[in-house]
Design goal:
alpha+beta; five-stranded mixed β-sheet; 13 strands; binds aspartic acid
């Protein structure tokens, strides 16, 4: 009886730990009741939670990580209430909604689109670039022509809300990305499927009121997203110019290859960016960067420059929204 009580007490403690951080508590569980770390999907910001649920529909049926991440981020792209991704995203300073997206699979196949207008699902155009062209990146008019040739249809992505705000913005015309405020943000998602394969997707309307033609990190493989099926995958959000400067997600994955955990790898990459910001005499307080990472064993990590970045994790035990640790 005493033993049973002790067990129940211990189990209660374990489930509390588990609720807080699923993959840490697991290490304390006896082998026979160890949960599987795959499949698993993680994605950026609060909107990642609903996107993960879509991805999970694919993963839980034994589908591929590639199909899961495409399906997952499509949800956010089509949601007009998310004002930094796809339909309803804030426009550039000329009032044009221009989209950046990329996708990468377990065989290092990649596809991207940048500065793409009028298409509801840039992530699916990126996948078509990957699967149906000899290229990896199409931009602007060429990307649109390709999308239309593939049967995608033209949609007006500028919602009345975004148009109204843009007209208001024009009065001062001051370009100022605001930290943790949704005048930018990206849905980046990486997943490990039941077969142990990794894929990732990343899609955004970029910085609100950017110059027309501006491309951020999100469609650039190695900056906004990188997958190495032997090691792990990472995706980024925040000030794209900073992530581009450091090839952020490639750095995170290479650090994992050198033996760092996903968490430590994200931390190191954020520190590099922090030093680069200081070296250039900029104020890190004005800049946000967030990385999330997933390794081949299903272990997750996340880190950001300053508090306020959230990420969502979904696996067989359910879905969680977590606050990322920050450097500042
Ligand atoms: N990284 C995106 C960009 O620079 C924006 C963001 O995720 O906040 O376009």
């Amino acid at each position: 009886m005493e033993n049973r009580r002790k067990f129940i007490k211990k189990a209660g403690l374990l489930s509390a730990l588990f609720a807080f951080n699923p993959w840490k508590a697991e290490d304390y569980l006896p082998k026979e009741i160890k949960v599987s770390r795959k499949p698993i999907v993680i994605s950026t910001w609060d909107f990642g939670k609903l996107a993960n649920q879509e991805a999970w529909k694919v993963l839980s049926q034994g589908g591929t990580a590639l199909d899961a991440v495409e399906k997952g981020v499509q949800y956010t792209e089509a949601d007009p209430t998310e004002r930094s991704v796809g339909y309803g995203g804030r426009p550039d300073r000329d009032g044009k909604v221009t989209l950046d997206a990329c996708i990468m699979d377990e065989n290092a196949n990649i596809g991207s689109v940048a500065c793409l207008e009028h298409i509801m699902h840039p992530i699916s155009v990126a996948r078509a670039v990957m699967e149906k062209t000899p290229h990896v990146l199409l931009v602007g008019e060429g990307a649109l022509e390709f999308a239309l040739s593939q049967g995608f249809t033209k949609t007006n992505l500028l919602t009345p809300e975004s148009e109204k705000e843009w007209k208001e913005w024009l009065k001062k015309s001051e370009y100022k990305p605001v930290v943790n405020i949704e005048n930018h943000d990206t849905i980046g998602m990486v997943a490990l499927d039941a077969n142990g394969n990794l894929s990732g997707a990343c899609t955004t309307s970029g910085m609100a009121y950017k110059m027309h033609g501006r491309v951020g990190d999100s469609p650039i493989i190695g900056a906004g997203l990188f997958v190495d099926n032997e090691v792990g995958a990472a995706t980024a959000t925040g000030h794209g110019e900073e992530v581009l400067r450091t090839c952020g997600t490639h750095l995170v994955v290479e650090l994992m290859r050198q033996g760092k955990s996903p968490q430590k790898a994200c931390e190191e990459a954020v520190k590099r960016i922090y030093h680069s910001i200081l070296k250039r005499g900029k104020n890190p307080k004005d800049i946000q960067i967030g990385f999330i990472a997933l390794d081949k064993n299903g272990e997750t990590g996340a880190f950001c420059l300053q508090p306020g970045f959230s990420y969502a994790v979904q696996h067989e035990k359910g879905s969680t929204l977590l606050a990322s640790k920050s450097l500042l």
